[in-house]
Amino acid sequence: MVTALADNPVGRLVEDLILQGGVDTSHIRWVPYDGVGRAVRNGLNFTERGFGLRGAIGCSDRGYSAASQLHPDDIDWDQVFGAEGARWFHCGGIFAGLSETTADVAATAMAAARRHGTVISYDLNYRPSLWNAIGGKTRAEEVNRRLAPLADVMLGNEEDFTAALGFEVAGLGSAVAGLDTDMGGTSADLPELDPASFGRMMTVVNRTYPNLKLIATTLRLVRSATRNDWGAVCWTGGQLYQSRSYPDLEIMDRVGGGDSFASGLIYGLLMGFNVADALEYGAAHGALVMTTPGDTSMATAAEVAALVRRESARVRR
Amino acid sequence: MVTALADNPVGRLVEDLILQGGVDTSHIRWVPYDGVGRAVRNGLNFTERGFGLRGAIGCSDRGYSAASQLHPDDIDWDQVFGAEGARWFHCGGIFAGLSETTADVAATAMAAARRHGTVISYDLNYRPSLWNAIGGKTRAEEVNRRLAPLADVMLGNEEDFTAALGFEVAGLGSAVAGLDTDMGGTSADLPELDPASFGRMMTVVNRTYPNLKLIATTLRLVRSATRNDWGAVCWTGGQLYQSRSYPDLEIMDRVGGGDSFASGLIYGLLMGFNVADALEYGAAHGALVMTTPGDTSMATAAEVAALVRRESARVRR
Amino acid sequence: MVTALADNPVGRLVEDLILQGGVDTSHIRWVPYDGVGRAVRNGLNFTERGFGLRGAIGCSDRGYSAASQLHPDDIDWDQVFGAEGARWFHCGGIFAGLSETTADVAATAMAAARRHGTVISYDLNYRPSLWNAIGGKTRAEEVNRRLAPLADVMLGNEEDFTAALGFEVAGLGSAVAGLDTDMGGTSADLPELDPASFGRMMTVVNRTYPNLKLIATTLRLVRSATRNDWGAVCWTGGQLYQSRSYPDLEIMDRVGGGDSFASGLIYGLLMGFNVADALEYGAAHGALVMTTPGDTSMATAAEVAALVRRESARVRR
Amino acid sequence: MVTALADNPVGRLVEDLILQGGVDTSHIRWVPYDGVGRAVRNGLNFTERGFGLRGAIGCSDRGYSAASQLHPDDIDWDQVFGAEGARWFHCGGIFAGLSETTADVAATAMAAARRHGTVISYDLNYRPSLWNAIGGKTRAEEVNRRLAPLADVMLGNEEDFTAALGFEVAGLGSAVAGLDTDMGGTSADLPELDPASFGRMMTVVNRTYPNLKLIATTLRLVRSATRNDWGAVCWTGGQLYQSRSYPDLEIMDRVGGGDSFASGLIYGLLMGFNVADALEYGAAHGALVMTTPGDTSMATAAEVAALVRRESARVRR
Amino acid sequence: MVTALADNPVGRLVEDLILQGGVDTSHIRWVPYDGVGRAVRNGLNFTERGFGLRGAIGCSDRGYSAASQLHPDDIDWDQVFGAEGARWFHCGGIFAGLSETTADVAATAMAAARRHGTVISYDLNYRPSLWNAIGGKTRAEEVNRRLAPLADVMLGNEEDFTAALGFEVAGLGSAVAGLDTDMGGTSADLPELDPASFGRMMTVVNRTYPNLKLIATTLRLVRSATRNDWGAVCWTGGQLYQSRSYPDLEIMDRVGGGDSFASGLIYGLLMGFNVADALEYGAAHGALVMTTPGDTSMATAAEVAALVRRESARVRR
Amino acid sequence: MVTALADNPVGRLVEDLILQGGVDTSHIRWVPYDGVGRAVRNGLNFTERGFGLRGAIGCSDRGYSAASQLHPDDIDWDQVFGAEGARWFHCGGIFAGLSETTADVAATAMAAARRHGTVISYDLNYRPSLWNAIGGKTRAEEVNRRLAPLADVMLGNEEDFTAALGFEVAGLGSAVAGLDTDMGGTSADLPELDPASFGRMMTVVNRTYPNLKLIATTLRLVRSATRNDWGAVCWTGGQLYQSRSYPDLEIMDRVGGGDSFASGLIYGLLMGFNVADALEYGAAHGALVMTTPGDTSMATAAEVAALVRRESARVRR
Questions:
Q1: Cβ-Cβ contacts under 8 Å, E11 against chain A
Q2: Cα A19–Cα A23–Cα A27 angle in degrees, nearest 5
Q3: What is the mean pLDDT of each run of 10 residues along chain C (317 residues)?
Q4: What ipTM was estimated for this complex?
Q5: Which of A76, F39, F81, F94 has the fewest CB atoms within 10 Å around its CB?
């Protein structure tokens, strides 16, 4: 993990949690704390779990975080991708929108990864409130259009493609309805995906960014905070793959679903699974993380694999 | 809030919780505690949440509570409704049945409210065990018949109207089946309401109590302790209104549903919403309170409004 | 309860919990602890509750438990069944498979119970990992075949009858599909039971073990860790009884379902209920225990009876 | 344990805790609950632990408890003391002051115990607030004077002897200063006991109640809620015994110190220890209970014995 | 309470806690939240309780808090001090050092209070890290020298007077050693105060700020995080008052000691107590708050009064 | 960390905690679990914190742990000490006494460390119950005498030297009284150490094991479970060093004091501190770990250093 943390008791608590996950902390940049959180802080995210028709609430408090104040020359990416040989680089719109400088950090990292042949994924993850302070939608489009040509894998839904990347394709609406993440509604099933329309959008995206080898997104229909329909879809090599669908998925704590989809998919691809299987790993991992408290995964690779094999939720003993 | 509490650590804890809700505590009468709970106590209510086919359990322990020992001349209602201008007075059968004196307190308050033009609501809320010690069903009928002519708004279901108010209307059964609150059953849907029969009952009630401008009740079908069908209905101006229905509502802790329906409805009417909208506020508020622990509402007005607008349970961040 | 515990703080905590249940502890054999758990221990069972598509996990850690080291002459069964007049003796395959000596303990106890006219039930409960260390499936078959002729009531599903008792009946598969406990699947309903096939299997079992007066098992279809279809079936006097079925039973903590079925059934038979009613008590008790945390029952007899009478999960207050 | 409880969920929770302690519950009288706590309740006692200079707080809420409504003929004492052969009967001023009838219950029990040769102890335990509702100090004196002649062992401090039993002995003050329980102060040591003066008081008490074979009390100097000086003293056969003194005893939760002193002393006497040893058991048990949460003892007999032997608080492993 | 909060779930939780304390929230300015904490936030303060020789840790995270962004014209102080008649205004160096604008807010408020005859107190509370970002010690001196002439009551220790107010009096060291708050050390007693030297310092301070009618500070000697010597001192009318000393005060959670001293002192003065008594209320309130978790007081006025009367920490029941 | 764990959910939880501490897990040998804990288990240690005169309790349950079943050829020590260059190897009597094979594992490791010039420390840590099952004191002496010649640094108190290593030196008693760890008592101070006598014992030990360059032990006087006198002493180069003494150290949870002493001392020596300073680091680290829950250290190096510098327990903020 390459990031920065303010060196105070909160940051050291985060370090504990990162270590617990078995993640390498040697590339965390520890920034001296100013004692009050004016020069630098650690970002916080308060969440309240939803239940039934009461939706979850998130309150992001990440202004002036150490990560947001990273500068392009703070990290020796050649060390990361070259000497240490990192095989995959994952980044996204939340990091890029943290401050005026983080887009440059992302661009520098992606260019370095490309030099070393490291695979690059980017999650558009468009959050309007994040971008408001640094130029809004216009800035988001500008940043994402600058970074998109540097990625191999793009994660993002229709809203991301239009709002965060600026695509405005006539007749796209119906085609990509099925790609909305976290879509509220009362209809009985996951929206039908029109492969032809989706293919047309992919053609347009592909024309602009021929570098994108794979585009993926989750599908979520929010029946209630406790029950969602869930699934995922990806497009690669001109072909559309759809994961097993999880109707009426029981949710304990929804946070982390999207990130765990991404990590499951990347795991599958790194392990050399075929695309269809990797997509199933992503969807299954995202589903499992929503059955445990918190936004980081508590599922083992074996548990994800069992779910991909459609093993039931029988007791294991 | 106009009530009495025994001045001991339990009462002071209750005061904390009342303050936390932003409720004015200046009309709480603090009664000196006798050190053992023989002369006066604070009422307690133990509850165990239900789960699935295990229903919730309530154990009321409110004998000799300070509230039950209020006397009609303990409170200066002209101050409350006149000088301070309280706009709405809400009371009900649980308070009136607490002791031999509380019905007089309620009657005195309602008469004073009427003098000052304050709107009055009364929730019949018939609980047989409560009345047993002071005369049973006969006493309940007598008290409720004395108080009903003083109210503007009546909350109560069919059981309340027959058992607590003494109505015995031929052929009423089928008409009001849909009005049962907390009705167990295995049928697939909320019971159908026969508007004609219900109208006949309302005609009878109206003939006896022409003062009642609005009558309302919740509809609840208990599929399991964790899943209820939920809704509400009200009658006013000769017309019947039915709220949005909430099939398969997921329940965390059912206590407080009825009271939160009442407060949501009253809020809507006080805000000047039309009856249909006020009814939706009541049903939505009652639904939300059952998704949080405890019997007092943790929902904001904005959250209730969002549910009335049928916004989904998507994460808000 | 007749068992052995190591006399250390863990064992004394278990004693507390046994006492809390109102169980007689006078036949617990307290074995001196060696201070390290090499000579003797108390068995532990770690469990993680499941949620939705994440199944529950159990981790049994019961090697060298005091119970596993019981010897046939450690207990004065004539005292238990004779002088003290215990009316029912329940035992099973988990105890019998604990070590090389426990099968002898079980056999000795069952023989003594038989001498005193005490009713004997045996739960096959086949767990392969348990038997692996002492001879595997071969040993399990040998032990169960030795104990089966000593029982009056047998609890076990189809897997138990084939794997743990060695029955290999042609064409049995379809007949007993409905008897699988904890069966994962996605079908919409509890599997249909073919009474004719099941009757044929019972005929075969009966021919081998004419002593078995009643055979029973639970039926469980695992839709998710949080929702199971549930029911039970028993065969006696050449006739098949099926309990009320509990579709979509909401599960808080699944552990203890099978044991609570057994205890509910035994309670019903001890109370002199007819077989159909006793079976309903078993199914209802098993269902209730899964709505509370932990594997021991928190349900009262009155609560079980109410569920048997199909009372709804309305609040009781 | 001979008492009465209201048969509601609170009473059944109390039953669980009594069972957990290994206490026989067969003489608990279960009184039907009225659903509201007006006719009968279960007594409650709220406590807040003290810390440092913030003293503990107790809030007793036991009006109309089932125990307070016991009548002399509710219990078959001949069964308890005769057929079942209870060896010791313990009772006290808190029970006797619960209501108008409990003194009669105590008198009846003590008379029966006397008939059967059962040893009787009585803890004066004078709490003014308790007696206020039924006649105050006058009633307390009357009741205690009626019961004192029936006891063999009396527990009580100087305040109890004067206020609750009505002794007014000239010059007693200085003699019994050392007998005050729970005495606040800032002096450096446990108050000195003047054996001559104390002997004179005992002579007076003995002249009035020659039946009292042993009188005992705890000594407590409250340096802070977290540190007390602690000890105990008893008089028997014309001789005064003083326990080991526990200066600067560290307190986690002070409730239960007096009752655990009584039970430790009674245990010692029942075991046939000499008076000096039994007194040490009482003082040590009282000390240990104040190191654990709650007012019931979590100490084993072996732990009490080790403390009596002055073993240190080294880790045992 | 006059302040500003960001209108997000964290701010609304703070509102709950303020309401619970019975504090008027009508002068809280609710600032719209930007969704990420870049434009405005709610200040946070993480604390870890100390124990024994492990000191407590505080981590302040209050950059860009809504309070720090208040501007002088945000509040209608004439309404607060005039129409509503607030009797006392308390403020201090932590607020004044929050940002470039808060000193102006404080000055404006103090001037307005002065116009309306409201008593004004100011707690110097010098925290170097707070001032670092806006000019350091130089800025602190400048701000405090600007505000000191506007106050009636000054709270501050020797370090505050020298570092935060710029006094450099020859020979002052020995005189004010006794005024150090939170002073670590191993000496056996609270440092001796040299009244003559202290008087000389007060003469100097008084010459510069003749407006200061009363100066007060706490005295704390940190023996361990769990045991402090504690007391307080104040100077007024040319006379020095010293509170009762609390040697070896047992500490549960030290945060809030200084603020509770201030509020106890102000309470005493507002109640019209003489200075010596008001000082005792301050010291006692500060002592009590350190026996409960958190930094806000849980002590009632009656509990503070009892401690002032030197009542012991006996149980109250 | 070089050890073995059974690969079940308990072992994986332990892995989480090891990772959280930043410890390299690559040399943990994961042993397949047998499902019941008969062939292999994970060791457990139950602890109950002491309070005041109630001592802490430990209940070790480590029979058949994966670590106890390690064999000498299970680990490639040349890889650990050679290729990976571990600088220090720490081991002790608890590991060596786990089973018949672990002494061989220890001997193999120590010999390998010696070959690669790695410093070796050994903590005698004699626990009689551990050795009972494999030959008792005789076996302990034999094992420790075999391993002592392989160590550079020895941790152990007088009891360890006599009981676990078999030294029986005339007149040693008085000399080593000061070396008792965890010594209960009521004396006012840490026992005086007679340097001459201690020197004589060291001379004897040195004559037998000239390889031991440093011998160290903690000093603990148990005033109560909550207050200990604490310190440490070491002998090296013919000279005796004694750490700062910590009288009346406040204890939250005593477990881990000895191990944290060892790790603090080793840290100091590895950092190149002189012996006196390294000893202070050991004593301070041991003291700090007893102020936090659990047996693993939560103290940072900076916190230990501050304590060594005798900084007080003032709040840090």
A1: none
A2: 100
A3: 97 97 96 95 96 95 96 97 97 95 98 98 92 92 96 87 74 39 40 63 84 92 94 91 94 95 98 98 98 94 95 84
A4: 0.90
A5: A76
